[in-house]
């Protein structure tokens, strides 16, 4: 078995030389988003041979996504804590800690964080959508200077999605 160093341990290579990933809290690429939430890209398509991308949200009250449809990937929301109101098609439901929502591509959906904070993971299959957060978010070092909160531009996020060719159709 071929191994490579990872931290203090050696982990085996997977097929095609892909390494397992051990990501702890705070690991990954962080960006400021929307209402001042912290988004951390934990896994990218490049790290998973395109299989998936994973993003963690330390979301704030009012964080939301306008209605949209993914045409390229399925999406899974895993709520660790807090309350997130999700609208899927014509159905709206409050998702709290421990909830999981599976969104097959082609289904219109949106969400709104209704608690002071919410902790959630978003997994997309196949990977690639995580580029949206890397490109559309603002570097953490910008802090208070980042145009988040009331200065956030939904139009800018639409432009980023279009530029990256993410196949998103925005609702009304």
Automatic annotation (TrEMBL):
Alphabetical list of Pfam families matching this protein: Cupin_2 (PF07883)
SUPFAM superfamilies associated with the record: RmlC-like cupins (SSF51182)
Domain Cupin type-2 positions: 62-122
UniProt protein name: Cupin domain-containing protein
Classification via PANTHER family: PUTATIVE (AFU_ORTHOLOGUE AFUA_8G07350)-RELATED (PTHR36440:SF1)
Top-level taxonomic group: Bacteria
């Amino acid at each position: 078995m071929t191994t490579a160093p990872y931290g203090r341990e050696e982990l085996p290579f997977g097929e095609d030389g892909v390494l397992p990933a051990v990501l702890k809290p705070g690991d990954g690429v962080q960006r400021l988003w929307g209402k001042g939430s912290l988004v951390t890209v934990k896994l990218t398509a490049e790290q998973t041979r395109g299989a998936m991308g994973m993003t963690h949200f330390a979301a704030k009250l009012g964080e939301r996504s306008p209605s949209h449809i993914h045409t390229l990937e399925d999406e899974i929301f895993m709520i660790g804590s807090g309350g997130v109101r999700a609208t899927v098609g014509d159905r709206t439901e409050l998702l709290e800690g421990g909830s999981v929502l599976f969104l097959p591509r082609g289904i219109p959906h949106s969400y709104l964080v209704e608690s002071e904070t919410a902790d959630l993971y978003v997994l997309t299959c196949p990977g690639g959508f995580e580029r949206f957060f890397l490109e559309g978010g603002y570097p953490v070092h910008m802090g208070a200077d980042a145009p988040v909160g009331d200065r956030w531009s939904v139009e800018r996020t639409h432009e980023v999605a279009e530029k990256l060719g993410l196949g998103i159709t925005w609702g009304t």
